[in-house]
Amino acid sequence: MLEPSHNAELPEIPAKRYFTIGEVSELCEVKPHVLRYWEQEFTQLKPVKRRGNRRYYQRQDVMLIRQIRTLLYEQGFTIGGARQQMVSSVVDIHETKSLPLVKNTLIIREIIEELEEALSHLA
């Protein structure tokens, strides 16, 4: 997928399973109302909703939000352009037209990051 340039300056994503909308807002430097709007515009972004319709984001959701943020704020894409760019980048990577791969790719990247982080702690 795309490698966000500014994301290196964002806070490190803690080793947690779920994040509240406030935590994600701080981790991605995006206001909560923007996150709620992006959920409507990007079908790949689906946080778990629990008690009282509260949103709980997983690590792959945070990574996806950072990618969306980079496309919109740094690369100047429109919402539609960013949506198309995300889908086409996943299609290009896998040389297939299967759209469910977006979420799977993020999960695989998350696992790779976690393994690399664990390896760095062992070294």
What topology does this entry show?
Layout: E1 19-20, H1 21-28, H2 32-41, E2 48-50, E3 54-57, H3 59-74, H4 79-94, H5 101-122
Antiparallel strand pairs: 1-3, 2-3
Can you identify the CATH class?
Mainly Alpha
Total domain modules: 1
Assembly type of the shown chains? single chain
CATH architecture descriptor text: Orthogonal Bundle
- Please list the strands of the largest sheet in the order they lie side by side: 1-3-2
Mean pLDDT: 82
Report the end-to-end length measured between terminal Cα atoms: 28 Å
What is the global morphology?
globular
**CATH fold node name:** Multidrug-efflux Transporter Regulator, Chain: A, Domain 2
Rg, alpha carbons: 14 Å
Number of helices: 5
* Unreliable runs: 93-99
Percent of residues in β-strands: 5-15%
Number of strands: 3
Helix content: 55-70%
Describe, in plain words, how this protein is organized in 3D:
This protein starts with 18 loop residues before the first strand and ends with a helix. The protein has one domain: Multidrug-efflux Transporter Regulator, Chain: A, Domain 2, CATH 1.10.1660.10. The chain has helices at 21-28, 32-41, 59-74, 79-94, 101-122; strands at residues 19-20, 48-50, 54-57. By secondary structure, the chain is mainly alpha-helical.
Keywords:
Multidrug-efflux Transporter Regulator, Chain: A, Domain 2; 3 strands; 7% strand; 123 residues; mainly alpha; three-stranded antiparallel β-sheet; 5 helices
Q: Quick gist of this model?
A:
It contains 5 helices and 3 strands; from the N terminus they run βααββααα. The protein is mostly helical and 123 residues long. It has a single domain (6-122), classed as Multidrug-efflux Transporter Regulator, Chain: A, Domain 2, CATH 1.10.1660.10.
